[in-house]
Amino acid sequence: MSNKFGMFIHWGVYSIDARHEQALAKYSIPFEEYDKMAMEFNPTEYDPEEWVLLAKKCGMKYITFTAKHHDGFCMWDTKTTDYNIMNTRYAKDVLKMLSDACHKHGMLLSIYYSNPDWHHENAYNPLSSHQYRARNKDAADMDKYKQYIKAQIKELLTNYGEIYTLFWDIPPKIYDPSMNEYVRELMPSILINNRGFDEGDFSTPEREVPQGKRFERMTEACQSLGEQSWGFREDEDYYSKRYLLSSIDKIMAMGGSYLINGGPMPNGKFNKDTTDRFLALGDWYLRMGGVLLDAEADDTGYTLAGKNEYIATKKNGKTYFHFYNGLISSAVHFFECGGKIPKSARLMNSGEPLRLCYDPLPGLSNPDGTAKEVAFSIKDIAVDTYCDEPVVIEVEWK
Ligand code: GLC
């Protein structure tokens, strides 16, 4: 995916309950009570342009929106079921409003669509890991339910302009490539994730900073700002900015895209904890000056002193050392760098040039006690100024 940074938005009836996007199942809310809550949905302060402008300010290129979550409630004007936004107090197509705002500001729009559906009477699928609830298990009929999915996907992919990616959620564990074929007929340019009826185009590690240095397949890692929920939760435990920043750097340095999620409140606004974290990620991302876009792995056999963890990428002949967990001191010492000679170094966090130095290192001595030779060192790195974020160093070679 050439777009590296996106905003994930979980918003629906569950936002009113303010505990978890799967509250219907997790707190055994009676269906009648949930349906009543659905009809009360009235986000009077919803202004999707605000979301889009926030995403833009953070350097994000796309927004992935929960059109339908596991509760089966549809956030668009659908003809396929009455269980939709047009039958709430709000009675406006929130997806249409969002797609208009995206188009106006050049933001791409992606659709999240849940395979589990706790409302549709034919949708009961015992193979699914999230089939916690069903209104009527006896009516289970996957063929019928797939027709319903197709009818909904058709609306979503024809009435809202270009859709960038399709984020199926919860693999149904039913292999049926005709589903994605249908999606591609409707929208040939679309990228499809691996949580649908086949492996799709890209993988979706979730709330995970994967091991390794490089993704083997097109990957979009998703992460929520809140530890407990994807949807708005009043008593949320937010991830530290430190943790989030190190995850975005590692995932992007591995070649992945990063989809960061916030759950708007029932009134349609993000709370301050959420906005602050989006902005912190955006601020760091923009300071990286685009070096995470189209960066290839730099497989030169580097050997660095010390225990700093890093990933090396390259772009336009320069190498970028991503110290995603920060640095342990104000210098980085290279024992080996494939015979290359550095010309200059720069701290991406600040844009400032860094000092190169070629002295042997007395602190790292050889077995006979003599000072250890290094190929070169990069020194005077403002580690204490940037102790809350990953440190990225650019090296230009001679
Ligand atoms: C998990 C959760 C689901 C959420 C999704 C986002 O699958 O179960 O509720 O929407 O993550 O990727």
Task: Explain briefly what this protein structure is.
With 398 residues, the chain is an alpha/beta fold.
Would you kindly provide a written description of the structure presented here, covering whatever features stand out?
- This protein is α/β, with parallel strands linked by helices and 398 residues long.
- It folds into two domains: 5-287, Glycosidases (TIM Barrel, Alpha-Beta Barrel), CATH 3.20.20; 296-397, Immunoglobulin-like (Sandwich), CATH 2.60.40.1180.
- The chain has helices spanning 14-17, 23-26, 31-39, 48-57, 94-104, 142-158, 178-186, 241-253, 272-287; strands spanning 5-9, 62-68, 108-114, 165-169, 191-192, 220-224, 257-262, 296-297, 302-304, 311-315, 318-323, 332-337, 342-347, 353-357, 361-365, 371-372, 376-379, 391-397.
- The mean pLDDT is 97.
- Alpha-D-glucopyranose is lined by residues 10, 21-22, 169-170, 206, 222, 230.
